[in-house]
Amino acid sequence: MESAKPRILVVEDEAAIRDGLVDVLVYHGYRVDAVGDGRDGLTKALSGQYDLLLLDVMLPGRDGFSICDEVRKVDRDLAVIMLTAKTSDDDIVNGLSLGADDYVAKPFSIQQLLLRVKAVLRRSRTVAEAAARITLAGDVEIDVHNLSGRRGAESLTFTRREMEILEYLQRNTARPVSRDELLTRVWGYDRSADIETRTVDIHVAKLRRKIEPDAKEPRNLITVRGAGYRLLVSP
């Protein structure tokens, strides 16, 4: 579904630390982008391109706490590690309560940071893979791991790509997911690539014929005008 190399965004205003982190992470096999301004960091963090956000707290433009808060409003899956010189319990609690996965205080050893990165990415993948079944309106049950399901008494089968789309939409069911985000996160295309987004529409149409009682009047996989698609999961 995604490249074998996790993609990391470093948001750090101190150039020496930022450049050092990029060099170390690239050396250890990660794909890395880096910015030094909070506003730019938030824009990139919300782009759907990254597996992990390494986020400094004290930043120009926008602080790390507010960035983490904004990210968590729309993306529960992006792993976040906060970097800061502040080590008080209040700061740690604040960062974690806003949705950060971990917290590393400066100065830190590279070995420690790499261990944290690996652990958070591993936990993130485990959470992403946890859902084994998706339940939808119209008596639809989907078995994620076996690429199968049923709609009433009718058996359903899915391609790997179709299931990846359903699984990604299920993990982000609280919000609409754009075509560009699906191309980036499911197909693994670079956001800057000139890709015809009709490929998404075609897959969605195929899915609707399988999971909707009436594909022309969808109630499970809906279109949110101007925003993308949402999968409405039954409780």
Could you give the topology of this structure?
Layout: E1 7-11, H1 15-27, E2 31-35, H2 38-45, E3 52-56, H3 64-74, E4 79-84, H4 89-97, E5 102-105, H5 110-128, E6 133-136, E7 140-143, E8 148-151, E9 154-157, H6 160-171, H7 179-187, H8 198-211, E10 221-224, E11 228-231
Parallel strand pairs: 1-2, 1-3, 3-4, 4-5
Antiparallel strand pairs: 6-7, 7-8, 8-9, 10-11
The total of beta strands comes to: 11
CATH topology of the largest domain: Rossmann fold
Q: How many helices?
A: 8
Number of domains: 2
For the record, the CATH architecture of the largest domain stands as: 3-Layer(aba) Sandwich
- H-E string: EHEHEHEHEHEEEEHHHEE
CATH class group of the largest domain: Alpha Beta
List low-pLDDT spans. none
Shape: elongated
What is the terminal-to-terminal distance? 26 Å
Q: Strand content of the residues, in percent? A: 15-25%
Question: Which structural class best describes the helix and strand composition?
Answer: alpha/beta
- Tell me the helix content: 40-55%
Note the main sheet.
Answer: 5 strands, parallel
In order across it, which strands form the biggest sheet?
2-1-3-4-5
